[in-house]
Amino acid sequence: MTVTEGISQVSTLATHTALSVWGIASDFLIIIILLSTFFLFAWYVGRGPFVALLLSFYAAYALYVAFPYTSILPTAPALTALLTHIGLYLALAFAFYLVLRRVVVSDFLYIGILGLIALSFLGSAFLLALAYHVFPVASVYTFTPAVNALFAPKAFFFWWFIAPAIGLFFLAR
To answer: What is the three-class DSSP state of 7?
Structure first.
């Protein structure tokens, strides 16, 4: 093997590896963006508000499922239907966040950096699982097969749904 062939093989390997890493990152770009948003929220606003945010997702889901007027929400353009359902959920989550923010105090709460990253990931996965199984996202956006394998099966929805609560139980002290 000559030096030129060796450099060519290393170059091919580096290019292939970089493209593979970018492919994996782009598959999970939604999770990465949500994780970063949650982490930065917890870092700058505080751990107490972050815990209140995670708990508000559960309370909002309970009211969203029981909301009696979903039949009057638009269904015609797929994007409009998706945005109204997400808007309703976010409005409920924000209302519960305001209430829970007053209750959850950060003076007695400790979550380490690794715990914060884990909880940010679990909160992101929770929202993505909701997008798959509750909101009509499939009519607007096609997820990659790797993300589909993690979030599309109905059997996984329960586990992604309960994961932030279990994470809070073990990571928040």
So the answer is: helix
